[in-house]
Amino acid sequence: MGGPVAERLVLLDGYAMLYRAYFAFINNPRRTSRGENTSAVFGMLLQLGKLMEDCEPTYLALVMDTSKPTFRDKLYPDYKATREKMPEEMREQIPWARELMTEGLRVPIIELDGYEADDVIGTLSRRAEAEGVECVIVSGDKDFHQLITDKVLLYNRKGRGEESEWVGPDNAGERLGVPPEKTVDFLALTGDSSDNVPGVKGVGKVAAARLLAQYDSLDDIYDHLGEIPQKGLRNKLEEGRESALLSRQLVTIITDLDIDLDWDDLKVCEPDREKLSELFEKLEFRTLRGRFGLEPVVKKTEMVEKDYRLVKDRRELEQVVAELVRAKKFAVDVETTGLDPISVELVGISLSCREHSGWYIPVAHSQGVNVELATVREVLGPVLADESVGCVGQNIKYDFVVLERAGLPVRGIVGDPMIASYLLDPGLRSRKLDALAENLLGYRMKSYTEVAGEGKEQVTFDMVGLDEATFYSAEDADITLIIENLLDRRMKDEGLEKLYREVELPLIPVLARMEMEGVALDVPCLESMSGQMELRLNALKQKAWELAGHEFNVNSTQQLATILFDELGIKPVRKTKTGFSTDSAVLEQLWNEYPLPGIMLELREVAKLKSTYVDSLPQQVNRRTGKVHTSFNQMVAATGRLSSNNPNLQNIPIRTEEGRAIRKAFVPSAPNRLLLCCDYSQIELRILAHLSGDESMIEAFTRGVDIHTETSARLFGLDPSAVTPQHRARAKTINFGVLYGMGPHRLSNELKIPYKEARQFIDDYFARFPKIREYLDSQVAQAREQGWVSTIMGRRRKLPDINSGNRVQRQSAERMALNTPIQGSAADLIKVAMIEVDRELAKKFPEAKMILQVHDELVFDVPEGQVDSVAELVVDLMENAYTLDVPVKVDLGTGRNWLECK
């Protein structure tokens, strides 16, 4: 449908493109280094690039609405009244969009006061058709179906991985159920909620399509109203006659506006590359330059001649080491045979101590000269292990593990650009070295595929030629050093140096040692559990079939929806694009009243545990060590919390019996050892008490009473001895809900109580703990003023949406403003504790190993005879890692497996 034509006019629905682009990046907005949101214009350019390929326009125009009222607003004052106000950060991008289109890409913008973009598009499409020019309207708006003819087509650019949609006369009826010429009457009956067009109340899409299949038009329906057999439908149409006629006026696109049209003005032409380049630099759209035929910007870094050298023997290595010692600071980067630091082999090492220079030391290339690893250990080893000579690396934890395994321990870590960039901007889209180089230096690095190939042709690095390997690897070390120096200055300027130097950098070797140590796994235990779960799943499946009345695919959400809402007649809770939702939230609302949703929830839970953990964990046991080696991430959560992957041990469920049972498979590394678990008790509430200074909460923690019982007593006016488990559970929900900005609606759902009662609970809570209310309000106010919040150790989280005109975005940012200082401070606290514990264990109990960190819990693998002494030391260090205005308490447990520790 989108094939070559003699002449084709492509009309872009401007605001639709900008809205779509803005919200496509809503969870991870694109921002400049100045913090400006550029998602809408960036996404619009991406769409434009693709549609130029697909649509092949001869003529092109961007059509926009103006800010003036239209005739529809005068006809119906509530027209589009329910629409959310445009997000402020999107509105700020409109001038950029206009400048990019008109001055950079030389695409004209057409708009007309008093009319919508739809009317301008309608008029231009009919003008094109009359002059024999095919017209393509780029939009997914159903209103444009009324314009479709053999010469007017719709093009709807789909998301990533989906084919774009062409709509013409042959397939136009698939979406609405009526042909293009009946679109106006269809919308007059059904209305349009997005534009607040009323339609006829109670007449849906199916009924409207059926009526228009039987009658020629809206007028024809009303001319034969008495013939409609369904009394209810007949009454709705009669009562909604005026509304239908009004709606028809509102949805009809005008096609005969007086618009001066010069085809030469619309002709596709070459962009003004100089202007476009200037705008791309201003907006930091460096990755788009190639797509729009612009040369990469040559920055200072690129123009400087590089001095990258291959180290071929001991003498040259000794000269390199002498320079490193004189410089007192250098960058290191390793090349290996793969990505897993626990199993890869070292291929080479690059070093740099001066900007624009570097060395590469090959140790295991298949061709050419290599320096013996024993020589590298003897000559370079002492410098890597010297704490007085600073070592910098991009994601240096990886290098640390690889070098440690190769007999080259690293001790003087003083910088990691990946972590520095994370502290400066936790929301940054990518912290890879090449992305940082492009964003911060405007410099394009040589890619791995350029030296090693790609796809099936790609080789491991030991097969790469030495010349290519030298430039590629030395460049990594060089750029790492340049960016580290740049970010180091920014860290000082933004007050983050203390957090960086005293928490995040010292934590790197701690996490690296934990990863290398690994966790022993009882594989037979998991295999037995898998068999039991398989039996359980079969039983649950049989029960589900019995309740449904027939067999069905329990993994099919569509089949389940049909059974629940069609066959069993259960009232649907929520609708999605593909039908009625059967997600966990929906099933949880239904399971108290109907048995099948409860069975399906249980079945899904067991199936997920089995596939994600029980069957997966044994496959991740390292053959060499016989253990599981998770990877701890410092740079994922914006709050500063650690996460883990390969495998993810942070999310093993503990609320269900099956979830807890998985912990039974985590065991000590030898029969004469035990696991020791040390867990901060209610640390986030203690931090809340400290930050808010609320005397009542501080006093409760100081007396050592149960905080949820104490809260319940104050909330319900009871003596603590009279507090029931139900009272305590409600108080616990409110205590933790406060941390996450929980409102009365959420609380009413959590506690299954009326909204009014939930609101009263929250009001009473803040009346009993007034300083907490003051603190939370002050956090939001501070965030609004400065655009960020911080933790007790100065970790910052930027909140660009805190003043957004979009209510959903603003409220989300407000919740982050409340939660981040508390959850982030807890993360700071346990990180400091981990550094202290690692240091003291190495001195006093070197055989005891810290092996896991899961949120507020540390797990150790300890010789059985040392458990009490190690526990005493660890608890003391954890409880005194940071001084709060309340006591910090650590709960501990020991056992032959992780489950026994609880």
Can you describe this structure?
- With 902 residues, this protein is α/β, with parallel strands linked by helices.
- Among the domains are: 175 residues, Rossmann fold, CATH 3.40.50.1010; 197 residues, Ribonuclease H-like superfamily/Ribonuclease H (Nucleotidyltransferase, domain 5, 2-Layer Sandwich), CATH 3.30.420.10; 79 residues, Taq DNA Polymerase, Chain T, domain 4 (Up-down Bundle); 142 residues, 5' to 3' exonuclease, C-terminal subdomain (DNA polymerase, domain 1).
- 49% of the residues lie in helices and 12% in strands.
- It contains 38 helices and 25 strands.
- Strands 3-2-1-4-5-6 form a 6-stranded mixed sheet.
- Strand 14 and strand 15 form a beta hairpin.
- Helix 30 packs across helix 37.
- The chain is globular.
Mind sketching the topology for me?
Layout: E1 8-13, H1 14-24, H2 39-55, E2 59-63, H3 71-75, H4 88-91, H5 94-104, E3 109-110, H6 117-130, E4 134-138, E5 152-156, E6 165-167, H7 173-176, H8 183-190, H9 205-214, H10 218-223, H11 231-239, H12 241-251, H13 263-266, H14 273-283, H15 300-303, E7 307-310, H16 314-327, E8 329-336, E9 346-352, E10 357-362, H17 373-379, H18 381-384, E11 390-392, H19 396-405, E12 413-415, H20 417-424, H21 433-441, H22 448-452, H23 466-493, H24 497-517, E13 519-521, H25 523-548, H26 557-567, E14 575-576, E15 579-580, H27 584-590, H28 595-614, E16 627-628, E17 631-633, E18 643-645, H29 657-662, E19 666-667, E20 673-680, H30 683-692, H31 695-703, H32 707-716, H33 725-739, H34 744-751, H35 755-768, H36 770-786, E21 788-790, E22 796-798, H37 807-844, E23 849-854, E24 857-863, H38 867-879, E25 890-895
Parallel strand pairs: 1-2, 1-4, 2-3, 4-5, 7-10, 8-11, 11-12
Antiparallel strand pairs: 5-6, 8-9, 9-10, 13-16, 13-19, 14-15, 17-18, 20-24, 20-25, 21-22, 23-24
